[in-house]
From TrEMBL:
Residues 345-368, 381-404 are annotated as: Disordered. Gene3D superfamilies: C2 domain. GO terms for biological process: small GTPase-mediated signal transduction. Residues 347-365 have a biased composition (Polar residues). This is C2 DOCK-type domain-containing protein. Residues 438-619 form the C2 DOCK-type domain. It comes from the Eukaryota. CDD domains: C2_DOCK180_related (cd08679). Pfam families: DOCK-C2 (PF14429).
């Protein structure tokens, strides 16, 4: 195919170029490479035994404690966005060596192998497919990344005053260097004495202790330990002034009598009945986050609330004990234990290898180390059972059993990832890619300004629709509007969260964290409702409410463009009511006008009016804060997928193209975190979309690959990018990809779309490669496709395997097929066309050396995989064409060093290199046979070895640079060493069969014994010494490398074959195998020993 026959692509930007290679052109290329090539239906393959490559299911790790979220999750069919979190993964693997009985033969020992002694530390190449498939750690559903520091934290808290009332504690970790909190709050409550009868009160007052549930805190690897501090915040029931409310705890010596204690309990009980949902701060303290047992913490009185900005400067003083605040007499001790990753994994995930028992009747099966019963941060299961169990331990009647002490129930605390670390640890700190369901919002009311009321408490609720009015009655809610989605202490789920109350302050600061579970499907109607109450701390008339509603504020969950709120500070105007002259019997009523959510979304901030400042943080694996990613994923939530109404679900081609190409403007971190669902839906458009949509999907897929890369275009190693590598080899599944437009569009879609992902990918890629226009977008598309050619080809290879196996099952009543199988003529021709273009791109110096090297190695690995997956001749044709191009450019040292040598090395490291060359096949398992078949040439015995052998010998003989010559000969030796160490060919029989492949190549070696060549024996002619005789010449090194290969071949064959190697060889000679096992040469061939081959005999005798 010449450039003259290639029509130029259109110059318009974004227009899909036309194909320049036709079916007739492919047939012409095939005729040049293999004149007698067979059609697809007649392909016999390359001797690869069926079932060598298997498609296996990778079991996903399941939690021992299943996740139980407050809000229900729709099934994957209704919400495709969550399908990636629950579907099984499948991967291709080589059949394990031990599973093949024909390969269980005695391995050649070290002293029996010449090359194993010569090169005892051989480094094998990268495998085509792994023999064992395991799930990478970053694909496990973790709360934090694998290298995070994990601390099991428990606290023993005892106030000198005693437990006279319920207390509410919050634990959180701060990083004083970053100036922020780095975990969510772990909240729990301690029941007071008023919850029990009088007799128990008298016994518990002297003890006054409680042990809280355990918590697992994570510190991301980039956090410096010396900057991390664990903060304890204690609050109590609202009573009034902070000074008087905390005074009993600060001066317990004044209240030691039983009468005083009883008065305190009765007062606390009265406040609990009137103001039980309102609280005020009591004390706080800080210690460094480091391992240790019984580590003391000093608690300081806290009379008013403090924001994070106010608390951070005081942490260092609190740790040193120099904080200028009253110390609350108490005993507060922490136990912090480092948990290694193995123990965490065994406690968190189910294992089939061993059982995990928590019952008291199976005491002998418990390990010596306490078992962790771990609950995730977002489940609604309460840990109160653990708390009650531990409270039982504090009673004299309870005798702890051994099983109780060997089981520790704990809850994980979600870490927060600082924006500076998001590129490494992901948006949520659990890894760069989301692999499990997470959907929560954290609200932090900061301060209230210019408010005319005091004793303010803010109620926070999540509403799914607008309401008509608000009422000040206690526990008043509009049914159907308020969601039960707010996490309370002990992980209980409630509908409302309240801030702490600052007594008599009109501009209060707030310190609460409100944790909200978000629904899977968000609409523009969802909003956060802040309701402001003026709380009466003193007793009022029985017919009056203890609180009055005095205002409200609205925070829409979604912005105007449908994107969820950003992690930022938001200032909202508070709509306040006039001051009433007396307390209301109904608590007040506020009417809300229709459309108030949209008005709040559009309205600006009036700085002269009352305002509330609030900070938000969203951790979600289904809702992105990036506008482009959010717009792309929006149709794949429930109630939108497959909708028949145009405004909800079905998009036209222009909308789809705009959303696909919009991904190129998305942030790298967001694309990487949502990579799995994005890639799935983009490939869905590539498979099922129209012509225009498929072209846009191909370009979007390349952009997504680039954004998801950790080190794009900077490394040519296969494992340089674990995200892309594991997506292709583990996550991608041909038949998990459905029509993105839903079942409605699937029924009405055209039947002309490609029948597989790989066919669609090859079509669009061929168009991009053939495009010679100078339009910037098209040039960038071509460049990106070359940069990620390895990922594209490996994805195509897996799609081929899955598609052919699926088609075989459909045609044979569900029977299980075995690879390799035969591709259709169209797929075969399209594959060869793309490979032809890629070979052409290798020789195009304008692409740059890095891209040339990437494409070069990509073709080599793809050919290796194609040998195992398909029986078609495409890999043989591609290699032959590649060598033709190399022959025309082999005088260029850069071509040899950076292109040819890496390509050959990948080929000779192929696990089934010998099989492809006709040795060690299923037909030759019983006896050694030499055979030679007719065309095509790729079916001849040793066809690939001959190409490699002759090319490397030619370079070693003709190349002027000594280093290149040495590299060529060392690569030649590696071809033999790789087979010696090949785990599939360790038997003597296999090694003999491999050696016999090279029988016909000996004349190529014999020519190097002539004058001036590598193996010429005259020292004077060869110039053994150089540089005045100080160092051996490179030619001596080359001679040694080449002769060790010859010696290995001769030492690998048995005596009947050994004599054949010392005969003069005629190129037309054939060796026939008879049923008796004997072998004889063609009698018409004249055989006589040569002087050069006698030299090899001497080597063999010395070796033996």
């Amino acid at each position: 195919v010449t450039e003259a026959t290639i029509p130029q692509a259109e110059e318009e930007k974004g227009e899909r170029p036309q194909l320049r290679i036709t079916t007739s052109d492919i047939h012409a290329v095939r005729k040049l490479v293999s004149p007698n090539g067979k059609s697809a239906g007649q392909h016999q393959g390359f001797g690869i035994e069926r079932g060598t490559v298997e498609l296996v299911k990778i079991p996903r790790k399941e939690l021992i404690q299943p996740q139980s979220l407050p809000l229900p999750i729709p099934p994957p069919k209704a919400a495709p966005i969550i399908h990636e979190f629950c579907r099984p993964w499948r991967a291709l693997r080589l059949r394990p060596y031990s599973s093949d009985p024909l390969l269980r033969k005695a391995e050649a020992s070290q002293d029996q192998s010449l090359l194993k002694n010569y090169e005892p530390r051989f480094s094998a190449g990268e495998p085509t497919f792994p023999t064992e498939v395991s799930l990478p750690t970053f694909l496990e559903p973790r709360v934090s990344v694998e290298d995070a520091h994990v601390f099991l934290v428990s606290i023993h808290l005892r106030f000198t005053l005693g437990m006279v009332e319920p207390l509410f504690c919050r634990l959180v970790v701060y990083d004083i260097s970053l100036g922020c909190r780095v975990t969510e709050e772990f909240s729990y409550s301690i029941p007071g004495a008023m919850d029990t009868n009088v007799n128990i009160i008298k016994r518990r007052v002297p003890i006054s202790s409680a042990m809280v549930p355990h918590a697992l805190f994570y510190a991301l690897p980039n956090h410096l330990p010396q900057h991390l501090y664990l903060i304890l915040k204690v609050s109590k029931i609202l009573m009034g002034d902070g000074e008087s409310a905390t005074s009993p705890y600060c001066f317990p010596e004044k209240l030691t009598s039983e009468t005083e204690q009883q008065k305190l309990i009765e007062k606390a009980a009265d406040c609990f009945r009137r103001l039980g949902q309102y609280r005020q701060p009591l004390a706080w303290g800080a210690i460094a986050l480091m391992e240790g047992s019984s580590r003391p913490m000093t608690l300081y009185r806290q009379r008013t609330t403090m924001s994070d900005d106010q608390r951070l400067p005081l942490i260092a003083e609190a740790v040193r004990g120099t904080l200028k605040e009253k110390v609350v007499p108490s005993v507060c001790e922490f136990d912090l234990e480092r948990i290694d990753d193995q123990r965490l994994t065994e406690s968190k995930f189910q294992s089939t290898s061993k059982s995990r028992s928590t019952g008291k009747n199976t005491l002998t099966s418990l390990p010596p180390v306490p078992v962790l019963d771990i609950l995730d941060p977002f489940s609604s299961a309460s840990v109160s059972s653990s708390q009650s169990h531990e409270n039982e331990e504090s009673s004299p009647e309870h005798v702890p059993s051994q099983a109780d002490s060997m089981l520790v129930q704990c809850r994980e605390v979600q870490p927060f990832c600082h924006p500076s670390m998001a590129s490494a640890f992901g948006l949520t700190g659990c890894g760069p890619v989301a692999v499990s369901y997470m959907n929560v919002m954290y609200l932090y009311p900061i301060h209230l300004e210019r408010f005319q009321y005091r004793n303010i408490a803010i109620r926070v609720q999540l509403l799914q629709k607008e309401v008509d009015f608000l009422c000040g009655l206690k526990d008043f809610e509009v049914q159907g509007a308020v969601l039960q989605a707010i996490y309370a202490p002990n992980q209980e789920i409630v509908s409302s969260g309240y801030t702490l109350v600052n007594y008599h302050q009109k501009n209060p600061q707030f310190e609460n964290e409100i944790k909200i579970c978000l629904p899977e499907k968000l609409t523009l109607a969802h909003h956060i409702l802040f309701t402001f109450y003026h709380v009466h701390c003193k007793k009022i008339q029985p017919n009056q409410q203890q609180q009055e509603i005095v205002g409200y504020a609205i925070l829409p969950v979604l912005q105007n463009d449908g994107t969820i709120v950003q992690d930022n500070n938001y200032v909202m105007n508070v709509f306040a009511t006039p001051i009433a002259s007396k307390a209301s019997t109904t608590g007040g009523v506020i009417s809300l006008s229709p459309g108030y959510v949209a008005a709040a979304r559009e309205a600006g901030i009036d700085t002269a009016k009352t305002s509330l400042t609030c900070r938000t943080r969203v951790l979600s694996s289904i809702h992105s804060q990036d506008r482009a990613v959010s717009a792309f994923l929006q149709p794949f939530h429930s109630d939108a997928f497959g909708s028949e109404t145009k405004d909800q679900g079905v998009l036209d081609d222009d909308q789809i193209v705009n959303r696909l190409l919009g991904l190129r403007q998305a942030s790298n971190t967001n694309v990487c975190y949502f990579f799995f669902p994005i890639a799935r839906f983009v490939l869905g458009y590539l498979r099922f979309g129209s012509c225009v949509v498929r072209w846009a999907a191909f370009r979007a897929f390349l952009a997504v690959l680039e954004k998801a890369s950790w080190t794009p275009h900077r490394s040519l190693k296969q494992d340089a990018n674990q995200i892309l590598h594991n997506f292709v080899h583990v996550v991608f599944d041909e038949y998990a990809i459905e029509n993105p437009c839903g079942p409605v569009a699937a029924v009405t879609s055209e039947s002309s779309h490609p029948q597989s992902i790989f066919h669609a990918m090859l079509m669009e890629w061929l168009i991009a490669l053939q495009d010679s226009s100078t339009v910037e977008d098209n040039v960038e598309t071509k460049r990106s496709s070359l940069a990620y050619s390895n990922m594209l080809l490996q994805l195509i290879l897996k799609s081929m395997a899955m598609h052919t196996l699926h088609q075989y099952g459909l045609k044979n009543g569900g029977a299980v097929g075995l690879l390799p199988m035969t591709l259709s003529d169209d797929d075969d021709e399209l594959t060869e066309a793309v490979l032809c273009e890629l070979v052409y791109c290798i020789g195009n110096n304008s692409n740059g050396l890095l891209l040339q090297k990437e494409v070069n190695r990509s073709i080599a690995y793809f050919c290796r995989g194609l040998f195992l997956v398909a029986k078609n001749q495409a890999p043989a044709h591609t290699i032959s064409q590649y060598m033709v191009w190399v022959s025309a450019n082999q005088r260029d040292p850069n071509v040899l060093v950076h292109v040819l040598f890496p390509f050959i090395r990948i080929l000779i490291d192929f696990e089934y290199f010998a099989v492809v060359n006709g040795a060690c096949t299923a037909k030759n398992q019983r006896r050694s046979t030499l055979f030679c078949v007719a065309e095509p040439s790729s079916q001849r015995r040793g066809w690939l070895a001959k190409i490699v052998f002759e090319k490397l010998l030619y370079v070693a003989d003709e190349q002027k640079e000594e280093k290149i010559r040495c590299d060529a000969v060392r690569l030649l030796r590696r071809m033999f060493v790789a087979q010696v160490y090949n785990q599939f060919h360790q038997s003597q029989e296999h090694q003999e069969q491999i050696a016999l492949i090279y029988f016909s190549f000996f004349p190529s070696i014999a020519q190097f014994t002539t004058d001036g060549k590598l193996l010429y024996s005259s020292v004077s002619s060869a110039g053994v010494m150089s540089n005045g005789g100080d160092a051996p010449d490179k030619s001596q090194e080359l001679k040694k490398e080449l002769l060790i290969c010859v010696a290995h071949l001769l030492s690998s064959v048995s005596t009947p074959y050994l004599s054949r190697f010392f005969q003069q060889f005629n190129g037309d000679m054939k060796l026939h195998a008879h049923e008796s096992g004997g072998h004889e040469f063609n009698p018409s061939v004249s055989l006589s020993p040569t002087g050069a081959l006698m030299h090899y005999r001497k080597i063999v005798e010395e070796v033996s």
